[in-house]
Write a structure and sequence with these properties.
By secondary structure, the protein is α/β, with parallel strands linked by helices. The chain folds into three domains: 6-98, no CATH class; 125-246, Rossmann fold (3-Layer(aba) Sandwich); 257-368, Rossmann fold (3-Layer(aba) Sandwich). The protein has 18 helices and nine strands. The strands form two sheets. It has a five-stranded mixed sheet, with helices on both faces. The longest helix is centred in the middle third of the chain and has 18 residues, at 186-203. The chain is globular. It starts with 5 loop residues before the first helix and ends with a helix.
Length: 370
């Protein structure tokens, strides 16, 4: 089990709480217990044995989107409150305390290796285009949210990779395991990590590409912390697809977007992990900027100061009402005449409210590049 950094946790617990204006959960609920400092106080007292985990305390401590919005105004640059809260609440499950709302999803993970339940079937693909192929053999990992809720993005990724002449494969996927870690089941995390490592090794791929930020972070950082470092390079989707454009393997369509079906004005929503952890804010905008005639309008908060969609850390499953409120607040910051584009399956799902369309970046690539 990862150890809690009590010094950093107390720094947050005793801070004047400058981050409160950026915490989406606090803004949506108004509950002091779920403010960053409130959660840090609960966690620090539990770690010191001055407070015992019960369902009420656990519910407050798990009310975190792991969006890292609290870092924007934080005076402690080394503090990662999201991880400290996660490590702090792991003993709760060992003590028999859990959150009833997440148990059905944990049961799905145990039975189907997906929090969403039985998978639709093996979406297995292998493309070996021969002389047009170049570079490393790619394993494209879709992630369980896309598999369960948006197969259109999978078809778009398949289409773009084939068009670019990439030697790639898609395998029968299991969840990366991060949801189990969020919900306190460390044994399941290790089990899924071991199984994924085996599958990735057996694939023979040299490069793993994923458009899911949570999967990317899990494979890049969380697996090594579990002693399950993967035997291949890991690259985020925006960086990889921008590389294909720069190599000339994907080219914008010749006609302007004004002549083609699809969005004419877009606003790019930065997923929290891509923006604040991976620092991938320029790449998606370069992709969009390469499309002739496409107008880009920024939302109120963008780049590293982006605001959460409400879907981080599987929050939309555990707390759907709060997640919807967080998403509604974010949608108010998007230009009214723009189609929202994002590079995260969780963000797309969370921001789909009302009749306003939300496109994933891979769908834009599929529509406007040849």
């Amino acid at each position: 089990m990862a150890e809690v950094n009590m010094e950093q946790l107390l720094n947050c617990a005793l801070c004047p709480n400058l981050c409160r204006c950026e915490c989406p959960v606090l803004q949506a609920t108004g509950r002091e217990a779920v403010a960053p400092a409130g959660k840090a106080r609960i966690a620090s007292l539990a770690n010191e044995g001055k407070l015992y985990w019960d369902e009420v305390m656990l519910e407050a401590a798990i009310n975190c989107l792991a969006c890292r919005g609290c870092t924007i105004h934080c005076p402690f640059p080394e503090l990662n409150l999201c991880d400290e809260l996660l490590y702090s609440r792991l003993p709760a499950r060992e003590q028999g305390v859990n959150l009833p709302s997440v148990e059905p999803y944990l049961n799905n993970l145990r039975k189907y290796s997906s929090p969403y339940g039985q998978k639709a079937g093996a979406l297995v693909t292998e493309n070996q285009p021969g002389e047009k192929a170049g570079g490393q053999k790619v394993l494209f990992f879709n992630g369980c949210t896309s598999l369960a809720n948006h197969p259109g993005s999978i078809e778009a990724a398949r289409s773009v990779l084939v068009r670019a002449g990439v030697s790639f494969q898609m395998i029968e996927e299991d969840c990366c395991g991060y949801p189990a870690q969020v919900w306190g089941d460390e044994d399941m995390v290790r089990q899924l990590a071991e199984e994924n490592r085996r599958k990735f090794k057996d694939s023979g791929a040299e490069l793993l590409v994923t458009s899911c930020p949570e999967c990317w972070l899990t494979f890049s950082e969380r697996y090594p912390n579990l002693g399950q470092e993967l035997p291949l390079e890991i690259v985020d989707g925006p960086t990889y697809f921008l590389g294909l454009i720069k190599e000339g393997r994907l080219e914008p369509v010749e006609k302007s977007v004004t002549e083609a079906p699809g969005p004419k004005v877009v606003s790019y929503h930065d997923p929290c992990i891509w923006a604040r952890t991976a620092e991938k804010t320029a790449e998606p905008r370069e992709i969009l900027g390469a499309i002739p005639g496409l107008e880009i309008k920024e939302p109120y908060a963008s780049g590293a100061r982006t605001r959460c969609c409400g879907g981080g850390s599987m929050f939309q499953l555990a707390f759907p009402g709060t997640a919807s409120a967080v998403a509604g607040r974010r949608l108010q910051e998007v230009p009214a005449d723009a189609v929202l584009v994002t590079a995260c399956p969780f963000c797309r799902e969370g921001l789909l409210q009302g009749d306003k369309p939300v496109w994933e970046l891979i769908e834009v690539l599929d529509r406007f590049f040849k």
